[in-house]
Predict the structure of D-alanine--D-alanine ligase.
Amino acid sequence: EPPLAQRVGSGRLRLGREDGSAAVAESVLATLAAAPGARVAHRPVLRPSEVLAAIGDHRPDVIFNLCEALDGDSRHEVMCAWLLAGLDLPFTGSDHVALRSCLHKAEANRILARAGVRVPETVRVDGPDRIPDVAFPAIVKPEREDGSTGIDRGSVVRDRAALRDQVAAVVARCRQPVVVQRYVHGRELSVSLLGWPTPRVLPPGEITFQGLPEGHPHVVTYESKWRPETAASIGTPSTAAVLRPLELRRVVAVGRRAFEVLGLRDYGRVDVRLDERGTPYVIDVNPNCDLSPDAGFARAAARAGLSYADVIGEILRAALARGPRQGDLLRARGRAPARG
């Protein structure tokens, strides 16, 4: 990831992410380094050419891939996975096909809808002068960002004038098209999945919105997620979801189905909204969800009785199991898969 502020070729100032990517890497590396017999090397990369140079210097047995952008562009996370796939070295996380599908929200929704997964009606919009007819209320999101980038108090719109203004603002700020999605007003749940080839569904979490200031829409904004001192963050705590048995089965089923249809592997999170009838809709799929020890994924794992070290170890073992030397490597660590 780039630093928070970085000069680019045009001389303009590009803002980087505030999501603590470096801190996540430090936590993952410290956990891996504590494993018996493990040797860990860390190489931050900024440009695609540096990915190959880093691998060439170390020739690792496995790569723990935490790349979410290169040169400040989230589209290049796909390129990083594509480069790694060509090196005949196992790496953690989803492949470049799944990453690309999830990165482009309109494309992900089309794939899910064709597979029978319920998603809100979604259209891609290039700018404020090309807005089709949509149903209100609607929510406006950048087409290819995650971590609530581009989501603010104005993201939920209730008429065409507000929609045009929000589209113009997000296109100008994020320099990319947007998606306009039917806003599903209801409970927001997160379904985390862990493992490969058959992932386990971890106990769902829920974002509660009761503490938000009056008039604030029930959405997780950028402030909510990354600025803990704000009212938006304090008012949107994450808790264990309390669901009736039928609700839980439906939520788990739609989360697993979305994960499988989009081809995710090792870990990921599916965000779900329940409408007024309790019907689950997938509103986002994140193949690179936050792996920090205090993030929602780790909390979901803890509800399943898994420590942070368990989570990182399971992700790593999944990648090792896909490698050409997987039997030798796993047996050397006492983790060989059961035979028969």
